[in-house]
Amino acid sequence: MTRNAKNTTPAKAKAETAAPKKKGVGPFQYLSQVRQEARKVTWTTRQETLVSTILVLILTLIAMLFFWGVDTVISWTIQQILALGA
Question: Is it the case that residue 13 has pLDDT exceeding 60?
Answer without folding.
Answer: no
